[in-house]
Design goal:
There is one protein chain. The chain is of the alpha+beta class. The chain has two helices and three strands, in the order H-E-E-H-E. It has a single domain, classed as Fe-S cluster assembly (FSCA) (GMP Synthetase, Chain A, domain 3). It is 44% helix and 25% strand. The protein has a three-stranded mixed sheet with strand order 1-2-3. It is globular, with a radius of gyration of 12 Å.
Length: 80
């Protein structure tokens, strides 16, 4: 596991209590070669109107400070 992946997982863990409090969760899917973090939202977070804010303002902004080479965070949208 790379140092970048450890930092990303720690940042997700830091958000996890807030996500779980609302009945949801988030997991790391992958970090792409072009330095994007791909996450999967779970439970109530999948359909939450605040999920974009959680990803962009919560996780992405924190990661840009901790790991400046990360250029963004995107949600993996799964088709039904």
């Amino acid at each position: 596991m790379s140092n970048t992946e450890k930092i990303v997982l720690k940042a997700i863990d830091d958000l996890r209590p807030y996500l779980k409090n609302d009945g949801g969760d988030m997991e790391l899917v992958k970090i792409t070669k072009d330095r994007k973090v791909i996450v999967r939202l779970i439970g109530a977070c999948q359909n939450c109107s605040a999920s974009t804010m959680t990803i962009k303002a919560g996780l992405e902004e924190r990661l840009k400070i901790l790991v400046p080479e990360i250029i963004g965070v995107e949600e993996l949208k799964e088709s039904a």
